[in-house]
Amino acid sequence: MEEAEQLKKEIEAKLLLGIKVQPDQNKSRGPEMTWDEFREEYSQLHLKSVRDSSAKDAESRLDIATKIIKPKTLGEMAKPASLQRLQAGLLAGEHSRRGMPRSPHTVRGYMKSIVSALNWAYHQDWLTDQPKRPRIKVSKKTAMKGRPITETEFKKMLKCTAAEVGDEAADSWKFILRGLWESALRIDELMHVSWDMHGTIRPKWIKGRLPVLEIPAAMQKNDTDEDIPLLPAFEKLLIQIPKEDRTGWIFDPLSLQLKLGRKVRHQRPDAEWVGKVISRIGKRAKIEVAPADSRTGTEIKFASAHDLRRSCGERLRNAGVPPLVICRVMRHSSWETTRRHYAPGDVQKDAAVLRGLLR
């Protein structure tokens, strides 16, 4: 039914544009369908139902896989030999931005996307055998692309903010930084926090109950409406705003055009642009969160918006907040995800806790 409804919409759209609709009776729906046909079907029937950022990443990775393998059919791409060759090409750095080898962690993510697309085809009965991802050995040292930053480093970012965005806009950008530092939200989520706008993330104060953040399904990776505890420090930040001003977006950074004395041409910036500016502030503050890698050509990574989210998770762990509560705040399905990606902890502090308990 879903495929039929989608096909109906496509035909209606083509008719409105004056495009002649040709019968599609001879179109193959199996291993022999062309790779281009599969890409179109996958994009129209599946990727349009996922988040825009996820769809964009999937399309990009399929583009690279297409350049490396150059498959003519769906079945050709799904062959174990093709997947093995794809993984080898990705590791070697074929069609990478810097022309350098990719890390095993990166390649595993790419292969997961490609095999996920092929598995979708398998569940449509377009492939007879379910594709499997080739094994790849990855380091278990860390899965983080950055690290939690310290309070001293965060203060350095605040201090450097005006130099990056200008004195007039500085306070609004510092407010963004503090919001990320105290909330454990992702940058896209923080930019969708409002006081009173339907379909956005909103703080809720209900008499006789503790405050929470109301997060709609559209803002969740798991597509589920959820309330999470409103962290006390984040609440303290929010209630600094006078009651008469509590309407519309809560985080609304001023334009950088003000720094240059230019007329502001655009309205509220999107999360992607805000994230780039925050990364520039981290670079100006010289806060390195990951070293350069000469093997892959990766440059030094400076503090970003996501590192501020990591910092919040780390502080919750250091404060002794139970793991399951941290998972709820970070909205992870398991403590292992939180531990590996956001709150690895301090072995010295863990050792001190053990000694204190076992003494």
Automatic annotation (TrEMBL):
Task: Output the CDD domains linked to this UniProt entry.
Answer: DNA_BRE_C (cd00397)
**One Pfam match:** Phage_integrase
Enumerate the spans annotated as Tyr recombinase domain. 144-355
InterPro entries the UniProt entry points to: DNA_brk_join_enz (IPR011010), Integrase-like_cat_sf (IPR013762), Integrase_catalytic (IPR002104), Tyrosine_recombinase_XerCD (IPR050090)
Q: PROSITE patterns from the xrefs? A: TYR_RECOMBINASE
Keywords linked to the UniProt accession: DNA recombination
Which PANTHER family does UniProt cross-reference here?
Answer: PHAGE INTEGRASE-RELATED (PTHR30349), PROPHAGE INTEGRASE INTD-RELATED (PTHR30349:SF64)
Name assigned to this protein: Tyr recombinase domain-containing protein
The protein's organism comes out as: Novipirellula rosea
What does the organism's lineage look like at the top?
A: Bacteria, Pseudomonadati, Planctomycetota, Planctomycetia, Pirellulales
